[in-house]
Amino acid sequence: MDSATSMESGVNHRQRVLIIDDQKTNLKILADILRQDVDVTLAHSAEQGLRKATEYLPDLILLDVMMPGISGFELIKRLKHHSLTSAIPVIFITALNDSSHEEQGLRLGACDYIYKPFHAAIVQARVRLHLQLTRQRKMLEQLAHIDPLTGIANRRRYSQLLEQYWRSAIRQQSQLCVVMLDIDHFKEYNDHYGHAAGDKVLHQVAHCLKDSLKRPHDFIARYGGEEFVMLLPDSTEHGSQQLIEHCFAALAQLAIPHEFSPVSDVITLSAGGICCSPNRQHKLEDCLKQADDRLYQAKQQGKNRLCWYCPE
Ligand SMILES: Nc1nc2c(ncn2[C@@H]2O[C@H](COP(=O)(O)OP(=O)(O)OP(=O)(O)O)[C@@H](O)[C@H]2O)c(=O)[nH]1
Fold first, then answer.
1. 3-class SS of residue 304
2. Are residues 113 and 212 in the same domain?
3. 269 and 167, same domain (yes or no)
4. How many other C-beta atoms are found inside a 10 Å radius of the C-beta of residue 222?
5. What is the pLDDT of residue 280?
6. 168 and 136 share a domain?
7. Closest Cα to atom 15, ligand 1: which residue?
8. Which residue's CA lies nearest to atom 31 of ligand 1?
């Protein structure tokens, strides 16, 4: 499982290029040309290349067409088929200056060709261009995952990550805790303090909750309106409940005045949670409904509290 926080972080790292070629001399020449600009990873065969591609998730792959065993054409099919590597751009390296080969490679999903013998300035220019496009694509992806009002992840990102975390919990036979949180009497807040002040509160609450998360895979998103959702993978019921208590305490410390709330004179939250043990029989929708029902229960029982699903 990759880290939720690292996935939400910036794209300004030094980029990595994976070069796959069975000829050591080609690997060395290309690595020498590129090393100044990027981190370089080398693979001497298609099998090793596929392994390193899924392990390092490089920003760009340079792939030799002619290799013994699995050819470059066969390998690009596998890379494009794999969910982890399908978006990584691939540039073919070839000595064959033949348009039908080039057409085949482009049809299989390559973004460009580099011809042997290598011309250092051309290799650098093509690699820089595709790395720049990769960086721009990643920036757009990140923007599409952020809620503009609060700056935390949005519901789209939550849905993606939920699916990943669920599959990972099945594989690792671990628990996934889901918590829904909702600001109490927020309508009254908006009505009395104004919508702009309400927006500010949403921002403050979002960051208070985000800052309360401790582990790298813990995740929070704005679910919509004044509702938030947390995913706490590989967490126990006790640990998750403690974390939510800590969130409530952190919010109480912020002490955002809410004179018109019947439950407190500051902003409070209600929350509903469940620890799911995903397996192929348990449905994700049932777990989410339980978390939602517990949030409803917390509201019904007087708000400013956490209700937790306890299986009979
Ligand atoms: N300022 C602001 N308000 C929002 C936003 N999204 C939703 N709201 C408001 O949140 C309020 C939610 O109202 P309700 O669903 O009645 O919930 P509530 O008043 O918090 O009541 P309880 O949840 O039962 O405590 C509505 O007034 C919405 O207009 C937003 O982006 N900014």
1. coil
2. no
3. yes
4. 26
5. 67
6. no
7. 187
8. 225
Report the pLDDT value the prediction gives residue 3, as an integer from 0 to 100. Answer: 40
The first and second tokens of residue 104, run together, are 């085949």
- What pLDDT does 1 receive? 43
**Predicted structure pTM score:** 0.76
Ligand 1, atom 6: nearest CA belongs to which residue?
225
Chain mean position to CA 154: 11
Whole-angstrom distance, CA of residue 160 vs CA of residue 68: 38
Of the candidates 149, 112, 103, 154, the residue with the CA atom closest to the CA atom of residue 133: 112
CATH number at residue 107: 3.40.50.2300
Per DSSP, what are the bridge partners of residue 41? 18
Q: Atom of ligand 1 at shortest distance to CA of 196?
A: 1
Distance from Cα 129 to the centre of ligand 1, integer Å: 46
pLDDT recorded at residue 195: 97
- pLDDT tens, 245-284? 999 999 999 999 999 999 999 999 999 999 998 876 678 9
Tokens describing residue 127:
């690699």
| Among 23, 10, 17, CA closest to 138 | 10
Catalytic residue among 8, 102, 141, 226: 226
Same domain, 75 and 43: yes
- With a cut of 50, which residues of the chain have pLDDT below it? 1-10
Whether residue 226 lies in the annotated active site: yes
Helices (H) and strands (E) in the chain, counts: 11, 10
Q: Which residues line ligand 1 (CB under 6 A)?
A: 149, 182-188, 190, 195, 198-199, 202, 225-226, 299, 303
